[in-house]
Amino acid sequence: MDAALQQRIAEAGRRLAGQLGAFEVARIPGEVVVFKVEISGREELPIFITQADSQILCICYLWTERDVAPSRRTALLEAMLDLNIAIPLSSFGRIGDKYLIYGALACEAGADDLAQDLLALSDNAVDALEAMAEYLH
Question: How is domain 2-135 classified at the architecture level of CATH?
């Protein structure tokens, strides 16, 4: 499974090279197979990719709870809910104290589908940081 996924990620990177620039993929050590994708010029927003039984999950961490201005936290959460509909192929979420944006694909998704999701997720992460800057410190 991990070799096939890594191959699809690498192929997606080749297809995105003209749009996003250099694309580096590294496997993260651990029990769960996770790949870290870094895009040139967007290294601060790596995308983590893993595959479960029914989907491929792509996650980009945006900020932590301590980055949120306490007096603006409720407004941030409301803004995230409001923006969820307007963000194509991505959704906001949270794991522990880390806020993120993510996308999911079917396990059978090919390199073109993965490339489209990675492009959308990366662009949406940049847009989310800009849109939510007023709530962060």
Answer: 2-Layer Sandwich (3.30)
